Every structure is written in C-alpha cells, then in structure tokens.
C-alpha cells in the first residue's frame, strides 16, 4: 500500500480481518514508535520495531525508507541482514 493510506492504526485492523498488508509509511503518522521515528541512521543501517503481527522497519540507502508490514516478522530482518552481507539487495526476499 502507498504511504498515503498506511498507518499503525489501520494495519492491525486489516490483519484482524485476515488481510496482510505491506507498504511504505510516513513517519509523521500518529503512533509511529519513537525508536523508529527518531533514530538517525547511517547508510546501510536498519532499525525495526515489532509489536504482535505488526513490524515497522526503517533503513537508510540514499534516503530513509520506512515500511510497515503484517507479512514480515523478525526472521525477515535477520535474512535481510544476511543478504546485505553478501552484497545482495534483499528487496524480493518475500516475493
């Protein structure tokens, strides 16, 4: 989903209706965890916050990218970090 529609309040509601959701997230949205929102990252770094079925990840490439998902969990973060060490993108990891 597009970041215009995503919010930390909407995603758990969709999950309760048995609909997974993945998309970018605006950091200005209400209820974005401060551990993700306020963290200043260097290129290649990543931070994640998991709460029940909802994961919010932020990483820095050329720019900061923030993603909210009910499909990806903590295991995805570990796999993504391993892919980064092998100089692979990791974008299609859960295709």
Kindly list the characteristics that best describe this protein:
single chain, 95 residues, alpha+beta, 3 helices, 4 strands, globular
Question: Can you describe this structure?
Answer:
The protein is α+β, with helices and mostly antiparallel strands and 95 residues long. The chain has one domain. Helices cover 24% and strands 23% of the residues. It contains 3 helices and 4 strands. A 4-stranded antiparallel sheet has the order 1-4-3-2. A hairpin with a 3-residue loop joins strand 3 and strand 4. It is globular and about 35 Å long. The relative contact order is 0.18. The mean pLDDT is 76.
The SSE string, one letter per element, is HEHEEEH
- Structural class by SSE content: alpha+beta
Radius of gyration: 13 Å
How far apart the termini lie comes to: 15 Å
Spatial strand sequence of the major β-sheet: 1-4-3-2
Furnish the topology, listing elements before pairings.
Layout: H1 10-16, E1 22-24, H2 34-37, E2 46-51, E3 54-60, E4 64-69, H3 74-85
Antiparallel strand pairs: 1-4, 2-3, 3-4
